[in-house]
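Entry for the shared binder. Reason: the reviewer on the internal report wants the predicted structure included alongside the sequence.
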Amino acid sequence: KIRARNSMNLANCILSDVIKKTQAKSRGVKRGQFCVVRETNMPAILLEAGFLTNPQERDNIRKKLYLEKISLGVANGIESFIKKYS
């Protein structure tokens, strides 16, 4: 299951860099059998950047700067994954 291992590595790299950028609480990487990530030939993840039911996270998600931090964290995480595992 190389793809599954690569997906976990990708998820951990992205989580690490998103947390660095946003200072959000890490809920860790979870496993799931979602079709959108299961039926691929390449590493795949499903990212939840926050919960609208949480007032603090909802307020953060409404801020442009916070969304930019998430985006940079994702981009940096992908770059970290490529450098570490390619």
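Summary line for the report: The chain has one domain: 2-85.
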